[in-house]
Amino acid sequence: LGGIQLHAQAIAAHNSNxxxxxxxxxxxxxxxxxxxxxxxSVVVRQAGLTVRSNxxxxxxxxxGTLQIQRLTATGGVQVTRGNEAASGDVAVYDFxxxxxxxxGNVRLRRGGDTLSxxxxxxxxxxxxxxxxxxxSGSSSVTGETTTDSNTGRVSGTFSVPEN
Amino acid sequence: MSTHRRIETxxxxxxxxARQHFAVPGGSHDxxxxxxxxxLPMGVGVLAALMxxxxxxxxxxxxFLLDRNKVAMxxxxxxxxxALYRGKxxxxxPFSLTAGEAVQRSGxxxxxxxxxxxxxxxxxxxxxRVGAEAGSYMIDDRQVDFPDEINxxxxxxxxxxxxxxxxxxxxxxxxxxxxxxxxxxxxTFSADRLEVDLSERIVALDGNAxxxxxxxxxxxx
Lengths: 163, 221
Known about the structure:
The complex is a heterodimer of chains A (163) and B (221).
Chain A: E1 4-6, E2 20-30, E3 35-46, E4 49-61, E5 67-81, E6 84-94, E7 99-110, E8 113-123, E9 128-132, E10 155-157
Chain B: H1 10-15, H2 18-23, H3 28-53, E1 78-88, E2 94-104, E3 111-123, E4 126-138, E5 143-145, E6 150-153, E7 159-168, E8 173-184, E9 187-191, E10 193-197, E11 202-213
């Protein structure tokens, strides 16, 4: 496992039940399929977390109460939270497991440090973001092979405090 | 009928009884009968003439005369209290529009303005009801314009509130432009343009569309 655990500073645990605000060029709410399709520079905000992408699909369940299951963002995805910003081709925000999985030439910037690789998993509960190159060969989510030169490798730059 | 005086003594006159006085020739009874003998045949003639002439005169047919100036006039073309309008949509399923008051101002504009309007239409999963304070119904293109808020309740409890929209009864679609907003169980939304397909329950928002979903709480608008 080439993933490097990046210990998070004190990023507060993210509340996945906070209200979610969507802002897009076009929103299609398909109630029968319990799905919302958004397109045209989509911006989603939830309590400090912001996801930007070209297209997005939201699956929710409204059996008893409204429960968002999953957010799938595709096309130039940027996830920003606190001082952490990640960008990639595809992102899947799983509300139940409260993790964001990004794939497709992923770049993660936190403060001065950067990390890039095939796949990124942000754990919103603990604030830990881990990048691994394992699936960068063919990112399972989009299916096409990534073209960055060091496929399968993870590279990063860190600034060490001089105190 | 003789009119000369009778020759009789005064005593004979007192001895006659009342009945004899009544029956004396030339008395009141004789005059009456004589008079009737002349008048009645004339009456028969007049009656016969009337029975021939009156059916021919035009006055006979008019049984009920409505005078335009005396009847109560409204200046609009149509004013109905608690009106009910029934129609059919594309699939041939009936819809009905009931209104507290429906007014159509003039013949050439096919718009019926309604107050506290309820439209009932049939959706795949059952009847749906669209209620609004006011609405104006375009008869020829079967579309109801709602100046302010409406709320839709479907059979299984699905509810939607929206403002700035119009209901197309033929295709059972809500269309709105120029800024619409509303709420559905999944969340509240606003956008420039909106098209809602009520039977498929698809809400399509266009032009800086915003949607707010609050997990954990199913809000019935």
